[in-house]
Structure formats: C-alpha cells, structure tokens
C-alpha cells in the first residue's frame, strides 16, 4: 500500500505539468464569468466554439486554479463538439488529484478519439496506476516502450510496475535494455541501483555506482549512494570514505549528514549520531516538521531514550533555540524536563513564556494541568482567573478548570460551577452534550449516581449519537445492574462506530457477561485483548471473570494475574483468586 500511495503522489505531480504549453502572465484581474454557454458562443461560427470554450477552461485551471469553473468550460466544449480531444485531456488533468476515477473516464475518451497522441497515452498510463489498474498500465507501457524506445519515462514507469508486481529482475533487465537506446542516464541508473539493492545484488549495485562516478566524478550524490551501499554490506571504511567524498563536494548538503546520521545509528556510534543530529536540527534546509518527527521517534523508543536521555534533552534545547515561541517545540522541551524529574523547572518554563500582550491559551492549559497535578488549589485559581481574563468566552478553559478541580483536587462542587459556566458559553447542542457527559462522569466518580444519570440523560437528549457518553453511560448501567438491555443497545452502537476500538469492545463484552451471555462475552473480550495495544488491566480482569463463569478455572487466574501485573487493584484480584482456591 505504501508503494501504491507513493505512485499516486508522484503521478499527480507529473500529470499536473505533462503536455501543457507554457502560459504567459501572472494571476492578474480575474475575468468575469460569462452568463451562459449561449452567451459565450454568440458571434462565433460553430467550428470556433469548442476551442474558445476550451481556452477559457484552460485559463481558469492553469492560471487561476479554479477546477470547478474549468470543468464547466471543458464540459461545455465537449457538449458542442464531442470529438474535441483536448477538452477531455485537460478535464482529466484537472480531476487527477481529487477524483482519479472520474479523470480516467475523460482520459479514456481522449485516447479513443486520438490514439496516436503521446501525451494522451502517457496521461492514461498514469491514471491507470492511480486507480490501481496496474495490469492495464503494464500493457500500455509495454506498448509504449516498443513504440517509442527513446523515451526514458516509459522505461521508468514500466520498471516501477514490474517492481510493484514483484518482478525486480525483469525490471533490471528492462533498464539494462534502456541503455541500448538511451545510453547511461542518471535517473534510470539510480532507479536500477535501488532495485539491485532491494534484491541483494550488491556487487552489481556497486558496479553501477562506480560507473556513475566515472561518468560524473563531481556529482556528490553518486558518492553518497555508493557509501550507502557499502554501509549496507558492512564495508565501513569504504562507506565512510565515500561519505567524506560526498561531503567534500557538497559541504552544506544535509542529505549527506542525514545518511551519515543513519549510518552512525546503525553502528551504535552515539557520539557521532548525536553530533550529526545537532547539525540536522540546526539546519535551515530541513523542514521543522521533519525535525520534530525525528526527535519524537527518539523519545518514542523508550530504551533508547533512557540510555541517551541527556543527549536527547540537549536536542530539545536546540529545537527551542531554533524555534523560539513555537508551542509544539516548547511542549517537547518542557516534557524533557518533566521526564528528567524536573516538574517545577518545566512549570517555571511555561510561566516564563506567558506573553503579557498576546498569551497562548495552550500555555495556560499546561500550567493549569501541572498546578492541578501538584494539588495547588491557590495556583490553579490564580492562573485560571488570569486565563479567563484574556479568554473570557472560551468554554474549553472552564472545562479544563473543572476537570482539574474534580480529578486532581477532589473538589467536585467547584468543578460543577466551572462546567455550568462552560455550558453558558457554548453555542451548539452537541457541545452542550459533551459537557453534560463530562458532568455525568464527574458525578459518577464521586458516587452520586442520581446526578450522574440525570446528566447522561441530558447529554443524550441533546445529541443521541454522542459516542463517548453512550460508552460511559452503558458501562455505568452495567455496573449498577440498571436496564442492561438498554446498556447493550447503546454499547453496540458505540462498538459499531469504531469496530477496532478495544475499549468499546470490552464494554460490550462486559455487558454481555452481566446478562449471562458468557459465550458471546468471551468472544468479544478475546477480540478486545487481541486489538488492545495498551495492555489494559480491566480487559484482562473481565476476560478472567468470563472464563471463570464458563468453568475454566485454569485460565481464569492467569488473566486475573495479568490484570494485576498491568496495574489493577491488588485487593480485588487477590479476592477473586482466594475465592477460587477455596472451592
């Protein structure tokens, strides 16, 4: 699927520029839209109408980027002259990204009208690939290679199809034959080298790379590619020699630094890995998003993060230095301080970044969460009031304040006052439903079942399809034995909305258990365990209870112990095991 997606993205870029004559001028004053096709065509002889409409559509799409208007003109041209192939071709170009299936229909018609037009055939081949008609594309490009053996695009596209069809050796043979007509071309040679690497033909890949270096000894990318091949074959000295050669030809090239960074990581050379990582972080050539992803991948690998924490933390500081005031970077930096056990340092950092003239509400939110976690009531009140001064009409702020009061400081009455304020600020029934659902959860956690029920019912009255409320309310009903059939109905609706959600499946299975439908419950809970990526203690406990109900007293305690290991209440688990042992 990744390969198919890559094809689609690349193909649209090609389609958007293929076969288009240069258009002069910039985006000036937009011409007025004609009232109707009839008005446009007045004063023109019939043979001029279709080209005129086509030209207007071409301007709308190529100059002004208006696909909808362009299509209306192309379709008008087709209505006037159904054999006017350029209108079909350009309509396909306009639709290629948004609706490739519809674009394909236009392209097929263009090719039926004029089967000799190379641009039309090229477009059709790419649209075949974008709509997953790979075999049709293969047949077309095999014909194109024979018809026009001097077009390198035909070889590269056909080789791509062979590779997609798991025929890499056929792709290599095709690219070898391309050299007969085209000589050695960098694009096709690079592609062939990648295929050779993919099938483990390293000696041939090295030979191809060395030939490319002989042909063009001043292209640093040839040395870089050879270095990567040597790295893949564990020829470290040769790999480094070629990396250094690439760097000497292009000292500022971040692709060289990136390749060396990957190499150092593969060899476990952490000092050099982090040295090159610093260069990547501080580079202006690499997008911010790429750097953030690079950093987050390191943090996500917990073993690597623990073993290299000081160096990773230093990278967070460099990111902040490179992008001061960027909240996402600030969050990464603060989290590195929290991970180091310096919660107060992270909190002080956020407070220091409260801009008096234009504060960021997200900074306030982080401060409120952290002060609530530290159970500092006065500080929560202080910063909540400060935030509300700047953002008096933001309901999320009151909801966050309420959650902090309810769950960190166990002050549910104060939390309800915040939720009530939020209710007054929201404008839609769905938003009110969400808040009533949160209020229901809060009352439930405090043991006030009457108020909890009242809030849940209000939430569903406002928005019957509120999935979060349906899930929480159905579980609540199952725990208290109230109207289990209704709970099952609500839970089924939730589960159907997200069939792969382990938490929702667990709720459904647990209600089945409460209804005494143990076989069905076992099936659902086993599915929840297989889908759960979090190691949920509750799912393990529920599955153990179901197994026990079915008389499987061998496996039941195994899953209860799994629940205990995952963090479930020790007393509850031991109570179950002890009761089983006393049988």
What would the average pLDDT be, to the nearest integer? 84
CATH H-tier superfamily of the domain at 1-21 and 34-132 = Tetratricopeptide repeat domain
The largest β sheet comes out as: none
- CATH topology title of the domain at 1-21 and 34-132: Serine Threonine Protein Phosphatase 5, Tetratricopeptide repeat
Distance between the termini: 54 Å
Percent helix: over 70%
Rg, Å, rounded: 32 Å
CATH class of the domain at 1-21 and 34-132: Mainly Alpha
How many strand segments?
A: 0
Q: So, CATH architecture of the domain at 1-21 and 34-132?
A: Alpha Horseshoe
Structural class: mainly alpha
The rough form would be described as globular
The percent range for strand residues is under 5%
Low-confidence stretches: 1-46
- Counted by DSSP, the helix tally is 34
Q: What is shown here, in short?
A:
The chain is mainly alpha-helical and 583 residues long.
Give a description of the structure.
The chain has 583 residues and is mostly helical. Among the domains are: 1-21 and 34-132, Tetratricopeptide repeat domain (Serine Threonine Protein Phosphatase 5, Tetratricopeptide repeat); 485-583, Serine Threonine Protein Phosphatase 5, Tetratricopeptide repeat. Helix content is 76%, strand content 0%. The radius of gyration is 32 Å and the shape is globular. It starts with a helix and ends with a helix.
Secondary structure topology:
Elements: H1 2-15, H2 37-41, H3 46-62, H4 67-80, H5 85-95, H6 100-113, H7 118-130, H8 134-147, H9 152-164, H10 168-182, H11 186-198, H12 202-215, H13 220-232, H14 236-249, H15 254-267, H16 270-282, H17 288-300, H18 302-307, H19 309-322, H20 327-339, H21 343-352, H22 361-373, H23 377-390, H24 395-408, H25 412-425, H26 429-445, H27 449-462, H28 467-480, H29 484-497, H30 502-514, H31 518-531, H32 537-549, H33 556-565, H34 570-581
Helix pairs in contact: 1-7, 3-4, 3-5, 4-5, 5-6, 6-7, 7-8, 8-9, 9-10, 9-11, 10-11, 11-12, 12-13, 13-14, 14-15, 15-16, 16-19, 17-19, 19-20, 20-21, 21-22, 22-23, 22-24, 23-24, 24-25, 25-26, 26-27, 26-28, 28-29, 28-30, 29-30, 30-31, 30-32, 31-32, 32-33, 33-34
């Amino acid at each position: 699927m990744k390969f198919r997606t890559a094809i689609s993205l690349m193909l649209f870029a090609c389609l958007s520029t293929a076969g288009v004559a240069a258009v002069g001028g910039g985006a000036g004053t937009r011409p007025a839209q004609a009232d109707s096709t009839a008005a446009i065509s007045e004063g023109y002889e019939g043979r001029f109408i279709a080209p005129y409409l086509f030209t207007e559509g071409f301007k709308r799409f190529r100059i002004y980027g208006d696909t909808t208007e362009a299509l209306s003109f192309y379709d008008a041209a087709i209505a006037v002259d159904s054999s006017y192939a350029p209108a079909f071709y350009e309509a396909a170009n306009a639709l290629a990204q948004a609706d490739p299936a519809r674009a394909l229909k236009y392209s097929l018609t263009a090719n039926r009208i004029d089967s000799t037009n190379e641009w039309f055939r090229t477009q059709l081949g790419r649209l075949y690939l974008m709509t997953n008609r790979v075999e049709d594309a293969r047949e077309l490009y095999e014909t194109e290679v024979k018809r026009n053996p001097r077009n390198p695009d035909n070889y590269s596209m056909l080789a791509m199809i062979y590779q997609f069809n798991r025929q890499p050796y056929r792709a290599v043979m095709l690219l070898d034959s391309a050299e007969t007509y085209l000589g050695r071309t960098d694009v096709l040679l690079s592609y062939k080298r990648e295929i050779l690497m993919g099938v483990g033909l390293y000696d041939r890949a090295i030979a191809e790379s060395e030939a490319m270096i002989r042909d063009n000894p001043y292209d640093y990318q040839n040395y870089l590619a050879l270095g990567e091949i040597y790295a893949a074959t564990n020829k470290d000295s040769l790999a480094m020699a070629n990396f250094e050669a690439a760097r000497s030809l292009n000292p500022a090239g971040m692709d060289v630094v990136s390749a060396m960074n990957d190499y150092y990581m593969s060899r476990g050379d952490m000092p050099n890995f982090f040295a090159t990582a610093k260069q990547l972080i501080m580079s202006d050539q690499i997008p911010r998003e790429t750097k953030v992803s690079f950093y987050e991948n390191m943090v996500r690998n917990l073993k690597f993060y623990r073993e290299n924490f000081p160096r990773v933390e230093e990278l967070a500081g460099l990111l902040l230095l490179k992008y001061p005031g960027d909240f996402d970077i600030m969050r990464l930096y603060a989290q590195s301080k929290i991970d180091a056990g310096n919660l107060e340092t992270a909190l002080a950092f956020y407070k220091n970044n409260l801009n008096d003239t234009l504060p960021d509400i997200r900074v306030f939110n982080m401060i409120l969460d952290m002060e609530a976690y530290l159970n500092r009531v006065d500080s929560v009140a202080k910063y909540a009031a400060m935030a509300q001064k700047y953002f008096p009409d933001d309901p999320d702020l009151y909801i966050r304040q309420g959650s902090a009061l309810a769950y960190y400081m166990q002050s549910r009455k104060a939390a309800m006052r915040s939720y009530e304020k939020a209710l007054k600020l929201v404008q839609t029934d769905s938003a009110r439903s969400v808040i009533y659902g949160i209020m229901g959860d809060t009352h439930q956690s405090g043991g006030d079942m009457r108020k909890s029920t009242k809030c849940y019912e209000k939430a569903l009255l406002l928005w019957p399809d509120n999935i979060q409320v349906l899930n929480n309310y159905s579980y609540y009903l199952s725990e208290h034995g109230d109207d289990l059939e209704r709970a099952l109905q609500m839970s089924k609706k939730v589960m159907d909305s997200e069939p792969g959600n382990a938490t929702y499946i667990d709720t459904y299975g647990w209600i089945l258990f409460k209804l005494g439908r143990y076989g069905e419950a076992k099936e659902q809970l086993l599915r929840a365990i297989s889908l759960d990526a979090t190691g949920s203690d509750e799912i393990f406990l529920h599955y153990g209870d179901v197994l026990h109900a079915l008389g499987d007293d061998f496996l039941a305690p195994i899953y209860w112990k799994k629940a205990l290991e995952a963090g479930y209440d020790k007393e509850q688990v031991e109570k179950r095991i002890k009761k089983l042992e006393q049988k």
